[in-house]
Amino acid sequence: MAAELTAAQLREKHRTTLDQALEAIRSRAYWSPHPEHPKAYGETAPADGEAAFEALRGKRFDLDQPGTDDWTGAEVSPYGIALNITYPHPDPDVLLPAMRAAMPAWRDAGPEIRALVCLEILSRISARTHEFAQAVMHTSGQAFMMAFQAGGPHAQDRGLEAVTYAYAEQTRTPDRAAWSKPQGKRDPLELTKTFKAVPRGVALLIGCNTFPTWNGYPGLFASLATGNAVVVKPHPRAVLPLALTVRVAREVLAEAGFSPDLVALAVDRPDEGLAKTLAVRPEVRIIDYTGSTEFGDWLEANAPQAQVHTEKAGVNTVVIDSTDDYKGMLGNLAFSLSLYSGQMCTTPQNLLIPRDGISTDAGPKSYDDVVADLATAVDKLLGDDARANALLGAIVNPQVKERIEAASGLGEVALPSRAVTNPDFPDATVRTPVLVKMDGARKLWEGAGADAPYLSECFGPVSFAVAVDSPADAVDLLRRTTRDKGAMTVGAYTTSAEVEKLVEEACLEECAQLSLNLTGGVYVNQTAAFSDFHGSGGNPAANAALCDGAFVANRFRTVEVRRPGQES
Q1: From CA 20, how far away is CA 29, in angstroms rounded?
Q2: Which residue from 155, 299, 310 is spatially nearest to 217, judged by alpha carbons?
Q3: pTM of the predicted model, to two decimals?
Q4: Which residue among 63, 192, 417, 482 has its CA within the 20 to 30 Å range from the CA of 490?
Q5: Residue 319, Cβ neighbours under 10 Å: how many?
Q6: Cα–Cα distance measured from residue 422 to residue 259, given in angstroms and rounded to the nearest whole number
Q7: Strand (E) positions, 314-366?
Q8: What does the pLDDT look like over 197-239, one tens digit per residue?
């Protein structure tokens, strides 16, 4: 097909950005080409984005992709409105062969052109950030500002980061080399060698409900940039953000002279289990998944033909030993527990506090003091309903609500959850966090039969203030939960070099990302693309990190062709 978007145009528009991104992953300094303030997109952008979202409701979302045999979709916003959008349902026997047929030309385009086409896709998504924010908000339940930032520029950053790592790994080996081996008095042995990055096959992206773009873009763009076709299977409750992404990608690929079937959408019927069907197809050679441990384990066990990247559940822990900024610590933790109603894979769950108390700049504080003061800090943060709605968003599904309601039966409630009314969306379910006191004595968690609630993930705004006998016991409990269940994040507050060393060593040995003494505007449950690694790939919470070289390198193989002689 004829290209409307030429290689020269792509280089002129995006090569500088790619070079800046390459420098950013090397330096790990702050950098982002995607503005995170809503006003940066123009005066009319908010209204235009909302109008574009509203125009999608109640209609078919046609993508003109092969193998469509039905239409399906039943998304209802956590804010209480039905989207009434239907999407193409695929026949895998038609769709997947068409996607494979699109790959040779994409493979032959080479790493640079693939990267630049991906940057054009991201650029067009960025221009529609307000529309995407509405789509993320009304499928995930995130409050608007979080949906705008995490679902927009931060997700786009993560996608660009994956493209950048993919380009760096593919260009580590030269395209060609002249090889000459001396043979003494005889003529040297001479070969011309060429090296080409070859994709594995069709990649399957299985999207999540809570962060469809932020968690979806790394795998999508890592696979596409390494030459693979990508079939996108969204979560049934969060289809629209990824459907919009697929639409933009197909448009750009066609304009650049490639088959749009390199990216396709696969939406399942209710209770169909399409992800399982696609995951074991022989064409599918890469899988990216974010979600429950149960299904992640199933994928790892049942899709041996594919490279499977999973982000699953974990038990995120904060060790509270001492602090020289007690007020700052409480404020930082209160925000971390409240953001998006604790529905982040990085939200702290277990707060490990010595039962004899901690030392602070405000004087000694007992275990009960720390718990009560933290409860007060959360109440103060969320005391105003308008601010509470802006931080909490909406509860994403009934299971999270059930966990909140069941928390009172787990122990003494130090901070009860309360319902918050959203005047703009009265049908939204909005709840403040609940904090439960727990005894963390060794006898309660040592041994195979221990079943304390804090030893497993309790996803949502439920956290446990766990009384431990000593900082050393806290670190041992941290090790136990990280080793057994995994952790996406670990935090610690201490003024003791000895305790800091204990926590750091535990995180190094159990391969968990650590944040120490955060008291300002950086929170344990937030990470920055190009600088921070999301997950480590080294504990049960995730077998990959977003984003490093390992995340992209096995999505392609290098094939060598040798020919006698030297090219003139």
Answers
A1: 11
A2: 155
A3: 0.95
A4: 417
A5: 27
A6: 45
A7: 317-320, 350-354
A8: 999 999 999 999 999 999 999 999 999 999 999 999 999 999 9
The CB-side HSE value for 187 (13 A sphere, CA atoms) comes to 5
pLDDT at site 207: 97
In sequence order, which residues have a C-beta less than 8 Å from that of residue 444 and are 6 or more positions away? 450, 452
Do strands 202-206 and 284-290 pair parallel, antiparallel, or not at all (unpaired)? parallel
pLDDT band at 291 (very low <50, low <70, confident <90, very high): very high
Where does the pLDDT of residue 441 fall: very low under 50, low under 70, confident under 90, or very high at 90 and above? confident
Task: Annotate 48-89 with three-state secondary structure.
Answer: HHHHHHHHHCCCECCCCCCCEEEEECCCECCCCCECCCEEEE
The string of pLDDT tens digits covering residues 317-335 is: 999 999 999 999 999 999 9
Residue 12 CA from chain centroid, whole number: 30
- Look at the block and give the residue holding tokens 């088959």: 259
Distance CA(340)–CA(336), nearest Å, equals 9
pLDDT of residue 445: 82
Q: What CA–CA distance (Å, rounded) separates 98 from 119?
A: 24
Query: Beta strand pairing status for 186-199 and 68-72?
Result: unpaired
pLDDT of residue 448: 57
CB-based contact 205:230 (threshold 8 Å): yes
pLDDT(449) > 60? no
* Contacts for 354 with CB less than 8 Å, ≥ 6 apart: 320, 321, 367, 467, 468, 469, 470, 471, 474
Burial of 524 (0-12, 13-18, 19+ CB in 10 A): buried
pLDDT-based confidence at residue 129 (cuts at 50, 70, 90): very high
Burial class (CB in 10 A: 0-12, 13-18, 19+), 531: middle
Q: Is 227 helix (H, G, I), strand (E, B) or coil?
A: coil
Burial class (CB in 10 A: 0-12, 13-18, 19+), 498: exposed
Q: Is the pLDDT of residue 446 over 90?
A: no
HSE (side-chain half, CA atoms, 13 Å) at 501: 3
> What is the amino acid identity at position 292?
S
Does the bond joining 547 to the residue before it have cis omega, within 30 degrees of 0?
Answer: yes
Q: Measured between alpha carbons, how far is residue 74 from residues 71, 97, 151, 204, 288 in Å?
A: 11, 28, 21, 22, 24
Residue 398's Cβ-count burial label (10 Å; 0-12, 13-18, 19+) is exposed
